[in-house]
């Protein structure tokens, strides 16, 4: 029975749901229904042959026939589909739109793909979704319009298309990157003809891609190999790759050195198909490396000469870096004075502990590591000069030394410090030059001199005291008009004799102090002292001796107590203030400042004048004995050169430090510190003093 010869009698949903894979004929149906069902039974087997899922739908969008592929694709049993609306196979959010599309299609049905340009989606029974492709074709069954649909699962195809798109995108990106690369990237065939030439190759060699393609690489670039070309080809054949440096000649005649990486590509049969060559221009790098090698050789030669010079110096010279004072450089004398070599990079504290060495003050007190000269210069960034110390080696031998430490952080004193000498970035840590001078021979000579001075001082002290006493008595008797009267000339001369005698007595007193210090017989008589009151008293005493100078005292504390020898602190202030007065012949302001540093429990003094200043050449030796500035000698200002030496000794014996800043013609500022007592002194009323 032909489908096109039958009348459209319609069919109920009940009849549709009863249709099996091969629909049985209902014995009680009328002839038209029987004809329709027979037609479907005839049509059903043919739906099984195509590989696609097939579905037959009536004009109302109801499923009336499906094949096995359709059931498998969507996961429904046959009976779950027959008689159900076709939008069952769609996601819920697309069902409303589908009704409109179906109505529009049925108005002019024709064979065509459905949803051209759209991403069609089906929904399985388990709710999973997948891309589909649908083709529709109208058919008439017993004169009734139906639509047969072929549905194909596009998941694998879509995935393949996506993968192809990704590969295509990657290839385009790679091609773009290869083109943009600064390296010269070229591909040559098995006969060494250039088949690909990127922009990097154009920039490096000068030939465009059109000019280069087809040429033999080695001929075009006049390549020079570090080994034979045959050896390079053999390495490529055996290992599939080769790396090395080549010399190429560019289009303009320039020669360039390239770092070449070559890889052999084989075809599916394993035969050589192409060679990928990546060349990087290292001409400038090799030039800089050559210059660096030459500079390094020159630096090494200079360092060798410097080391030879340093090794011939009698003084021990160290160059240390950073807070731990790690050694950068040391000469031969340094090994001798410490009794052991100081390894490069070794910290100072570790070296001293490892070799059993120790440092002492001239009075025999152990020197704390934080008070070592190099560390003080490293921490403060200021030179520390003429520090007298004693090195005691591990075998018990003692060596008296004078230490100078000069920080070199500004590099003006240390031009072009080689990187090989530093232990880190050149500007990261401070570098200090430390010089130890062995003064054992000088000490022995000084001991003889001190013995002579001590003897002479003792012998002079008595007659000087007698002369001064008699001069004073003569002046006193003359003033009382007892005995013979003195005329004006005689009184003047006796007065001069009195001043000269007392000056000589002061000199002998200073010399006695010096000899006692050198002999280790000097003792401090410490007692609680208010430094504010003592300083104010000494300023008032010295202000009375001059009309041209104004002595000003600045402090923010009412009292500041310290356990000190008050007489010696007066001696320190007297020497420093007298120098400020004496070396400011034009007069002017002299400022004294006293501050309390509670965090370190120290009293800090500052004495500033506007006088002659100290010549730079004499500043390093200013605290030595009998040392005076050349400018004061020329000016005819008298002095012994012992005052600052005694100040330093007295301050350091109290546990303090002294330093100064000075500029010739501008003035000088002296700084010194004294440790304060932590005890709180109270008066009888119980109030804190």
UniProtKB/TrEMBL annotation:
It catalyses: ATP + protein L-histidine = ADP + protein N-phospho-L-histidine. Pfam families: HATPase_c, HisKA, PAS_4, PAS_8, PAS_9. SMART domains: HATPase_c (SM00387), HisKA (SM00388), PAC (SM00086), PAS (SM00091). Its EC number is 2.7.13.3. Residues 39-92, 170-215 form the PAS domain. GO terms for molecular function: histidine phosphotransfer kinase activity; phosphorelay sensor kinase activity. Residues 1-24 are annotated as: Disordered. Residues 1-11 have a biased composition (Basic and acidic residues). NCBIfam families: sensory_box. PANTHER family: OSMOSENSING HISTIDINE PROTEIN KINASE SLN1, TWO-COMPONENT HISTIDINE PROTEIN KINASE. This is histidine kinase. It comes from Ktedonospora formicarum.
